[in-house]
Design brief:
With 310 residues, this protein is mostly beta strands. It has no helices and 27 strands. The chain is globular and about 50 Å long.
Length: 310
């Protein structure tokens, strides 16, 4: 279990009895998001993008508190990291201008900048999501024009989807390449070329939405969406609301996570709320493993890694 506290990153044993990397690695700044984890290496390695202006590798090892190598110094990081299917690391830095820039690094024990910086806009709105082609999708605001922006695996700017001036969550990427995200108080679905699938925009969530969880029950795909108003909604692929419920009246919920017991047809979705409570919702099916990026931070462990299994 990877935990951040202050400027330190800790690798905690699964049974909670010990910290595996000594006193924790000090990454010289506040982590921009949850660590992204490399799959299948021992000791396990996590990437952390720091407000100190570097991306760090941290090992689940007591040697030097697990601190590994770090990228060249740039402006503070404000989003990421995310890891694509080829193991390349993506993170967003921000200058004082203000401007937000996407950067990509390769990692072979040391960081090398593959490309970047790619300008996204004046202000970042969401964490990165990665498609099946390793394109990175991020919502950003450029002097009032808010868009969902595609950057290819080669660093080229691609499709720009207008978000009509609203705030936006991270996008879930579906198996057909479509993108589903909360835009203000609406859940929106777009093709990878920017075509709106639901016209007019639907459904109305009654509060500012967060990133959806993409669910599959073996028959149909649905989207489970929390809001900043304390509600949660299950939405069908045509944009209609299947059901809605209130978990914490007037209290902002956090991004959701999900657990499916082995052999069960049901899953338990979990949401924190601003009043300090953890909520559980029983839902049909499980996270859609056919989707390349079915939730914020990719998978139930929140590895932020497109190559990680479910």
């Amino acid at each position: 279990v990877w935990v951040t506290a202050g400027t330190r990153v800790f690798a905690v044993a699964l049974d909670g009895t010990s910290i595996l990397n000594g006193a924790g690695c000090d990454v010289a700044g506040t982590p921009a998001s949850t660590p992204a984890v490399i799959d299948g290496v021992a000791p396990e390695v996590a990437f952390v993008a720091s407000s100190g202006g570097r991306v760090w590798s941290v090992k689940a090892s007591a040697v030097a508190d697990g601190c590994g190598t770090f990228s060249p110094l740039v402006d503070p990081y404000v989003a990421g990291p995310a890891v694509d299917s080829a193991g390349r690391v993506l993170a967003v830095s921000a200058s004082a201008t203000p401007e937000a820039f996407l950067r990509q690094f390769t990692y072979d024990g040391a960081f090398a900048q593959a490309w970047g910086p790619v300008r996204l806009g004046e202000q970042l709105l969401s964490q990165p999501s990665v498609s099946a082609t390793d394109a990175c999708w991020i919502a950003a605001d450029d002097f009032g024009t808010r868009s969902l922006l595609e950057t290819s695996a080669a660093g080229a700017s691609g499709v720009s989807i207008d978000l009509a001036g609203a705030n936006a969550s991270a996008a879930a990427v579906l198996s057909d390449g479509d993108l589903v995200l909360s835009v203000g108080s609406y859940l929106r679905r777009f093709s990878s070329t920017g075509i709106a699938r639901w016209t007019p925009a639907a459904p109305q969530l009654g509060g500012v939405g967060l990133a959806p969880l993409v669910l599959d029950d073996g028959v149909a795909t649905t989207f489970l969406v929390p809001t900043r108003s304390g509600t949660v909604h299950l939405v069908a692929t045509d944009g209609t609301v299947v059901w809605s419920g209130t978990l914490a009246t007037g209290q902002a919920l956090g991004e959701g996570n999900i657990h499916t017991p082995a052999g069960s047809a049901f899953s338990r979705a979990y949401f924190t709320s601003a009043d300090g409570k953890l909520h559980q919702v029983i839902v049909d099916g499980a996270l859609d493993t056919a989707a390349p990026w079915p939730k914020a931070w990719h998978d139930p462990r929140n590895t932020g890694n497109a190559a990680t299994g479910f």
